[in-house]
Amino acid sequence: MAFQPIVDVSQREIIYYEALVRGPNGESAFSILEQVTQDLMYRFDQACRIKAIELASELGMQEKLSINFLPNAVYEPRACMQATLETAHRIGWPIERLNFEITETERVTDRGHLRRIIESYREMGVTTSLDDFGNGYANLDLLTDLQPDSLKLDRDLVMTCNSDKRRQAILRSLVALASTLGIPLIAEGVETREESRCLVELGIPMQQGYYFSYPNLEALTEIDHAKYD
Fold first, then answer.
1. Helix count (H) and strand count (E) of the chain?
2. Residue 171 lies in a domain
3. Which region holds residue 112: left if phi is over 0, alpha if psi is between -120 and 50, else beta?
4. Dihedral angle sign, alpha carbons of residues 173, 178, 184, 188
5. What is the CATH number of the domain that holds 105?
6. pLDDT averaged per 10 residues in sequence order, the chain, 229 residues
7. Active-site hit among 188, 201, 218, 222
8. Could you tell me if residue 113 is inside a domain?
9. What predicted TM-score, i.e. pTM, was given to this entire model?
10. Is 188 a known active-site residue?
């Protein structure tokens, strides 16, 4: 696992670290995920959860830990959380400092199942985020049924937003929508100071991307606070 910070620019602080899959020699997430067959999906999902919590604890992380999961790998929410809860209890990781990011929502055919996952996790004290939000109508349409704890805006909406009036218009609409629904937004893929400043002005201070820090394999990085100015 590598860890990348999610920051609140307005508060000048790290609020989460997202755990990102890497190979044993630092290979990319894609090179690992393409090896995961349908038969291995559940075991892989469980192994990633446990490894992320163990490594975050070893690194002395005090912030919230966000872990990606594949909704189609979760056959029954409470049963699939048992190993995660046992690992957290074993190493003393507070349950309320766990967040799960729902990925590959375009492959979800049973929306009721996804709603049960979110509701079950909330009952257990765990929060959820809808990842890659805004990358298609089907993704947006999920909000008719789901109430995640946060939405992570897709990089395609973020890039060059400082100079793209169309993206700014879309982002303003999403800020208004999220505010109405009571769901915070997190901008992914922030790569420049100009993008970060624009997002803050649009009302999206929670951000993640290379501008703040690359994913780190060995130790949590110190954030350059000058980037918040």
1. 8, 8
2. no
3. alpha
4. negative
5. 3.20.20.450
6. 94 93 85 85 88 94 90 76 92 95 72 88 94 76 88 95 96 95 96 97 97 83 69
7. 188
8. yes
9. 0.90
10. yes
